[in-house]
Design a protein that fits this description.
The complex is a heterodimer of chains A (694) and B (549). With 694 residues, chain A is α+β, with helices and mostly antiparallel strands. In chain A, 51% of the residues lie in helices and 16% in strands. Chain A has four domains: 264 residues, no CATH class; 68 residues, Calcium-transporting ATPase, cytoplasmic transduction domain A, CATH 2.70.150; 128 residues, Rossmann fold, CATH 3.40.50.1000; 140 residues, Calcium-transporting ATPase, cytoplasmic domain N, CATH 3.40.1110. Chain A has 28 helices and 22 strands. Chain A is elongated, with a radius of gyration of 33 Å. The N terminus of chain A is likely disordered. By secondary structure, chain B is mainly α. Chain B has one domain. The longest helix of chain B is centred in the first third of the chain and has 31 residues. The chains are: A alpha+beta (694), B mainly alpha (549). At the A-B interface, helix 9, helix 10, helix 13, helix 25 and helix 26 of A face helix 14, helix 15, helix 16 and helix 18 of B.
Chain lengths: 694, 549
């Protein structure tokens, strides 16, 4: 199981505090989206949204009446009803516009490519990239653009993937193994590779990305459908309530005009959420894209909010990618300085991160030079091999070695020395604590000496404990997956604060764990990049494939992280939650608004026949006309006012469900009841100045 | 003071009884043993009691049983002249028979007839009283099917309707009814098969005072939240409800099963606090509405009205304002519809309060079974929004609330306003309607609204002041009762089916708890807001206009 790339996580995610930042909303977007919004006035588009369709029908109806019997009030109401529809379209258009801009960037990068196709007889022919079929072999050399998605079958190359990831550092791709997949549209910087094409033209990764960010084939997610049903139900209830009001009004001796009834209906049905619902969904996907994560469906984003078990790879997610030297333990007669000097010498030429970390530790703790001196450079370096399992240096008759305990002990014995029991004890203790012991030995003047042990430990990334505590309060259990032995795993688990761990994990173990969690009703999220991760990625509810991974992994997961940063899983969960919260909060706000509208409109309609109903006019609205018009205007303006919130998502801080609900009920429930009282009252102060209304 | 004492005694009695009764009912519906008498029933109707049913089969059972019950009840009324104890009252006319058959099968007990002159004892005992038991048992069954939906996972079996129906009748309603009938007789409620007694009053005129087997029907009328009186004056009649004690016992009987069912629910879902959460919502709304109605009746408009005793108009002096308000609040909050005072005489606010009680959708605490399932459906709506607001796919009691669940819940809450508003809207539009109203203006509309509210919510209480014997009223109110009952039942069973098919989602700290204080507050708000937003326009031109006048 491979876990991470060597590429460090991009700064913006590493530094992120876990809060979902605000997307930038520029009011100018409203203007640029206006043509799209106007196009959406077509009934074919409107009928897809039941709530707004009712408003659309109401607008048409009131326009007919306004033309038939034009007066200031009727025309004003008709106009504002159209504005209501327009504002809803605008919300959707702005959300889509942001996606379109991203798609445009991608499309620009997707140049017309020419492919050098290999015929079965080994000859090359030049064909347009779009004519490639699955299974075709193509040759790509330095400076050429890879014509389609596929797997490298021959060769190794550095590839510039910035067209997809925005990351300028080139990555290495080679045949075989987990780094063999290449994406169409990326550029080979060096060497020559042969690629087997794995997608049809028009279905490549970039094409799918474009379709996704454009929201062209956006399907409603399960929660969105359920919410739409509820909103439609409310609409039907209000339709009935308003329809039956006319006979009652007639019985009471005060027949109402169609304009007034339409205005009442539009104010009551949940237009606010109805208008913003699709914008919220598109914006949710957009927030993922802004973080360089592509979801194959909105469903996956929603599922992320429900995740209750997170499987996190130890390496790269919980700990830094490599072990580091954390302690020097001298044995026998050697002092700590002796050990440090020997350890540093043996590691000077060791280019592995472990080796570098030993030099750094010696420099930090013992003030030794971090770089090899000229004299030292003259030494003969002994590289690490799988056979010797040691590395070191031969310098001026000194033979310095460091390596696995058994290998170094055998070397010491070979050199005629003896390894003390003390060394064995220290090695065992370090192993028992979950760290890796490296023994450092030296032959000085023909006598082998064991200086001591270097402890290599996994270093847990900072703030992981807080992060896991937050997740716990959100009801999410974290499970660390590692290939380490149970002892090491437990030590890291304790240090990082993760809830559980799976040690010596094989792909089968991982799969079994996911199945077991799902049996118990938990939703599982994981990241992966290897081909052997593919089944588990497919089985998990949210499977985030690293872009650096294989094509198989990317096909199996339902999201791809272009930054290949496994910690992003936590952010994805937060984005999923935020998407649902935004929908719920705006629905509550929308429904809570109705109370004030009743207080505005009902007295306006019936105070003439029942003067006592004027007691309900607590906002002291000037005239029946100004009251009704103010309610309609408020209802339209609130849509525009909430577009930034819909695009950005409501504020989300990880906390318990109870705390979240209490906060959102106060802000959007109570706020939703009070806001329109103030809003309608203020609008009325202006509207009453219009001649013919006030 | 005496009023508060009554409330105190009532609440104490309910608090004492709901635990044992609730747990007993839980055992009744989970037991695997069959009583001998039950086996006889199962053999007679050829049902294998150990075979559980799919929700569709269960629903087909409810529908089929209701349909057969309506036909039988209609026939019994139409054939009254050949039955004993008819006292020459003759066949019940078709309009009344149609309306009454639906009314009693739908647990509404709307009465568009005068019992003393229309129904003989056989129709009362063999027809109406039988349905008083069975319609209540149907409500219990549906509630239990829904509870099983929450309790079970990954199954398409919801229990057996015939078993639930039989057990509800045999093990719960019959024994309790028998016990309390004896108590009521002891306290002076009449139980007689005679048509009545002829007396000569002090002014020398002869009178016929009707008698009936009242106690046996009275008890199930309350216990089964039915409400159909054996006398026209219903529980205001001294033979049905002779004194303050019987009044209090009858109110207790109205509330006891719906209240105890919350305990049954809590016991069955394995967390009693879930039941208490629902009960607290019911109690708060019941208490608040009681306060409103009581206050409104004790403070009629203006000092002159107060001095003249306007608040006591239409109320029996032996119950007083408190005993009447308590009864009125409980009968409208439980879908019972029995009355011990004339709701038409209530003030605008008080009368509107009784109407609002019904417009909540009969769940404070609601009818036998219907109260529990209506409240659970409302809880699903509340939890759907709340779930979104905490950032998860909404769930309640470990079951996800997806498209199917929300659709079923939406249909349930849509049914009542639809039939109510359409019925009342058309009624007020009809040119002849004003001729049937005792009042014009807002009160006239209140009378129409009350009638359709009562029918659509299967309450059955009447505002009086409106004559409902015309073919339009008989048929439209009949259909309101039928659809107001059966559409929610079908939707609830469908809901139960899709809940039972799901696996249970374990709860974490990310799950919204439905026990503490927040959930009941939210649920109370949802119940009030849904009713208010739906009915404010209709109420504005009736009770609200009256109350503000």
């Amino acid at each position: 199981m491979t876990t991470t790339t060597d590429r460090p996580a991009p700064q913006h995610t590493a530094e992120r505090t876990g809060r979902i930042g605000a997307g930038v909303f520029n009011p100018r977007q409203l203007l640029t989206s206006l043509p799209d919004a106007l196009r959406k006035l077509h009934p074919r588009h409107q009928v897809r949204n039941p709530v707004m369709f009712v408003v659309w029908v109401g607008s048409v109806l009131s326009t007919v009446f306004a033309i038939g019997d034009p007066d200031v009030f009727t025309i004003a109401v008709a106009l504002w009803l159209w504005f209501t529809v327009l504002f809803a379209n605008l919300a959707e258009a702005v959300a889509e516009g942001r996606g379109k801009a991203q798609a445009e960037t991608l499309r620009r990068g997707k140049k017309e490519t020419v492919a050098r196709r290999l015929a079965p007889d080994g000859t090359e022919e030049t064909v347009p990239g779009v004519s490639l079929r699955i299974g075709d072999l193509v040759v790509v050399e330095a400076g050429q653009v890879i014509p389609g998605d596929g797997e490298i079958v021959e060769g190794i190359a550095t590839v510039d993937e910035s067209a997809i990831t925005g990351e300028s550092a080139p990555v290495i791709r080679e045949s075989g193994g987990d780094f063999s997949s290449v994406t169409g549209g990326t550029t080979v910087l060096s060497d020559r590779i042969v690629v087997r094409i794995s997608t049809k033209p028009g279905e490549s990764f970039v094409d799918r990305m474009i379709a996704l960010v454009e929201g062209a084939r956006r399907q409603k997610t399960p929660n969105e459908i359920a919410l739409t049903i509820l909103l439609s139900t409310l609409t039907i209830i209000f339709l009935l309530a308003v329809l039956t009001l006319q006979p009652i009004a007639r019985h009471s001796g005060s027949v109402q005009s169609v304009i007034v009834l339409t205005a009442l209906l539009v104010c009551l049905i949940p237009t606010t959420i109805g208008a913003l619902l699709s914008a919220i969904g598109i914006a949710g996907m957009d927030r993922l894209v802004q973080r360089n994560v592509l979801a194959t469906s909105g469903r996956a984003v929603e599922a992320a909010g429900d995740v209750s078990t997170l499987l996190l790879d130890k390496t790269g997610t919980i700990t830094f990618g490599n072990r580091r030297a954390t302690e020097l333990i001298p044995v026998g007669t050697s002092t700590a300085d002796d050990l440090a000097a020997a350890a540093r010498l043996s590691s000077l030429a060791d280019g592995t991160p472990e080796g570098r970390s030993i030099v750094e530790l010696c420099a930090r703790r013992h003030g030794l030079p971090a770089e090899a001196t000229e004299a030292e450079s003259a030494g003969e370096f002994v590289p690490f091999t799988a056979q010797t399992r040691m590395s070191g240096i031969d310098l001026d008759g000194r033979l310095v070695r460091k390596g696995a305990a058994s290998a170094v002990r055998a070397w010491v014995t070979d050199q005629g020395g003896e390894s003390a029991d003390e060394v064995r004890a220290v090695v065992d203790r370090v192993s028992a604590e979950g760290a890796t012991p490296l023994v450092v030995a030296e032959v000085v003047a023909g006598t082998p000496v064991v200086h001591g042990v270097v402890r290599l430990s996994d270093v847990v990334k900072p703030r992981m404990r807080d992060r896991f505590a937050e997740l716990r309060s959100m009801g999410i259990r974290t499970v660390m997956i590692t290939g380490d032995n149970p002892l090491t795993a437990r030590a890291i688990a304790d240090e990082s604060g993760v809830d559980d761990f799976l040690a010596e994990a094989t792909p089968e173990d991982k799969m079994a764990l996911i199945r077991r969690e799902q049996e118990g009703g938990w939703l599982v999220a994981m990241t992966g990049d290897g081909t052997n991760d593919a089944p588990a990625l497919a089985q998990s509810d949210v499977g985030v494939a690293m872009n650096s991974g294989t094509m198989a992994a990317k096909e199996a997961g339902n999201m791809v992280d272009l930054d290949s940063d496994p910690t992003k899983l936590i952010e994805i969960v937060e984005i999923g939650k935020q998407l649902l919260i935004t929908r719920g909060a705006l629905t509550t706000f929308s429904v809570a608004n109705d109370l004030a509208k009743y207080f505005a409109i009902l007295p306006a309609m019936f105070a003439g026949i029942f003067p006592q109903l004027d007691k309900l006019n607590i906002m002291n609205l000037a005239t029946p006309q100004s009251a009704i018009l103010s309610a309609v205007i408020f209802n339209a303006l609130v849509i525009i006012g909430l577009i930034p919130l819909a695009l950005r998502g409501v504020r989300y801080r990880p906390s318990t469900a109870n705390a979240l609900l209490r906060r959102n009920l106060v802000v959007y429930g109570l706020g939703g009841i009070l806001t329109p009282f103030v809003g309608i009252w203020l609008i009325d102060l202006l509207v009453r100045l219009i001649p013919g209304i006030g | 003071m005496a009023g508060l004492l009554q409330v105190g005694v009532l609440l104490a009695a309910l608090a004492a009884v709901h635990k044992p009764l609730g747990d007993y009912m839980a055992r009744v519906f989970t037991s695997t043993r069959h009583l001998a008498v039950e086996r006889v029933v199962y053999r007679a109707v050829r049902v294998d009691p150990d075979r559980e049913q799919h929700w569709k089969t269960y629903a087909a059972g409810v529908l089929g049983f209701s349909f057969v019950s309506i036909v039988l009840l209609y026939l019994i009324q139409r054939l009254q002249s050949v039955l004993p104890f008819d006292f020459g009252r003759g066949p019940v006319e078709p309009g009344i028979a149609f309306n009454t058959a639906i009314s009693f099968v739908a647990n509404t007990n709307w009465q568009s007839y005068v019992p003393e002159t229309v129904m003989g004892h056989t129709v009362q005992m063999l027809g109406l009283t039988v349905q008083n038991f069975l319609s209540a048992a149907v409500g219990l069954s549906v509630a239990m099917a829904l509870v099983r939906g929450f309790v079970r996972s990954r199954t398409d079996r919801l229990g057996n309707f015939w078993v639930d129906l039989t057990r509800g009748t045999v093990r719960i309603l019959l024994p309790m009814a028998f016990l309390f009938a004896v108590v009521l007789v002891g306290l002076g409620v009449v139980q007689s098969l005679r048509s009545g007694v002829d007396i000569t009053s002090v002014d020398g005129r002869s009178n016929h005072i009707a008698l009936a087997p009242a106690a046996s029907q009275e008890v199930i009328k309350e216990l089964g939240t039915n409400g159909g009186g054996i006398f026209n004056a219903n529980s205001a009649h001294p033979f049905e409800n002779p004194n303050g004690w019987t009044n209090l016992i009858e109110i207790f009987l109205l509330l006891v099963i719906p209240v105890s069912l919350t305990r049954t629910f809590g016991t069955l879902v394995g967390n009693r606090r879930q039941g208490y959460a629902l009960l607290s919502v019911m109690t708060v709304l019941w208490g608040a509405m009681l306060a409103v109605i009581w206050w409104a009746e004790a403070h009629p408009n203006g000092p002159a009205a107060l001095l003249a005793g306007a608040g006591t108009e239409g109320k029996e002096v032996r119950f007083g304002i408190a005993g009447s308000a308590l009864f009125a609040n409980s009968t409208t909050g439980t879908s019972t519809g029995a009355v011990n005072s004339m709701h038409d005489s209530y003030s605008g606010l008080g009368g509107g309060g009784t109407m609002l009680n019904m417009l909540f959708g009969e769940m404070t605490p609601g009818g036998v079974g219907t109260g529990l399932y209506s409240m659970l459906v409302m809880a699903i709506i509340a939890m759907f929004l709340a779930g979104l607001m905490v950032g998860r796919t909404p769930e309640y009691l470990g079951k996800k609330l997806g498209r199917r669940e929300v659709t079923a819940a939406a249909v349930t809450i849509l049914a009542m306003p639809t039939v109510l508003l359409l019925g009342a809207g058309i009624a007020i539009l009809l040119p002849g309607t004003s001729g049937y109203l005792a009042n014009s203006g807002p009160h006239g509309w209140s009378e129409v609204l009350y009638a359709y509210t009562s029918a659509s919510n299967n309450n059955g209480s009447a505002f009086a002041g409106i004559t409902v014997t015309s073919p339009w009223f008989q048929s439209s109110l009949g259909l309101c009762m039928l659809f107001g009952r059966l559409i929610p039942i079908l939707a609830v069973l469908c809901l139960a089916g899709s809940l039972a098919a799901q696996k249970k989602v374990p709860s974490t700290s990310g799950t919204l708890p439905t026990t503490g204080a927040l959930f009941p507050t939210l649920l109370t708000g949802t119940v009030v807001l849904v009713a208010a937003l739906t009915f404010i326009p209709a109420l504005a031109l009736g009770p609200i206009a009256e109350a503000l006048a």
